[in-house]
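Q: Okay, next protein. This is Polyisoprenoid-binding protein YceI from Actinomycetospora cinnamomea. I've checked the sequence twice, so it should be correct. Can you predict the 3D structure?
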Amino acid sequence: MIASAVGHTPAARPVAGPGDLGRVVLTRSGALSLPAPGRWDIDPVHSRIAASAFHLGITKADGRLRRFTGTIEMGTDLASTEVRAAVEPASVDTDDDVRDQHLRSADFLDVAAHPHIAFASTRITARSADRWTMTGDLVLKGVRNTVDLDVVHHGAGPDLWGGERAGFSATTQLSRDDFDIRWNQSVIAGILAVGRTLRIEIDIEAVRAS
């Protein structure tokens, strides 16, 4: 007997006659293997870059970077795989126009002088089949620093238009001080208006290039 479902790897079991087959589990196609070698383009419509920081030390302020591009050059293994991305800091969106204008100013992202944020991976290593550590160079506000991202590979499979897609998520934490984003305002002693640490959350859907 062969059990199958779209987007999953078929499972086969020998059948000698009527009987209970028990529980049959199908694995998502590509969940435990790398996407096919070649170029994969990030689909910005189905991807997300978000950042959050503590506000007044008691709650988080969230925002998104709406415009970005990127490619994944998949190798035959992670050691030969490269990731590159470019983000427009002017696309920052926190659902507050006044705050967004301040974030675009020289106090924070200084988008007039630095219209792009760039990332290029330098090393990707596997912690398990679907959990990786990606190290790369991040250039933000003209300052280059090395960052590590915790990456989860969610698998790959066919889409609705005859193509192939792969899904990933990644998280990291950045210190604003490392990128010369030092503006702050003390409310009372020891309490800052904006936290110094940014939590970055990324969801990526990539399309295999034809």
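A: Here is a summary of the prediction. The first strand starts at residue 2 and ends at 3. The two ends are 35 Å apart (CA to CA).
Q: Noted. On to the next one.
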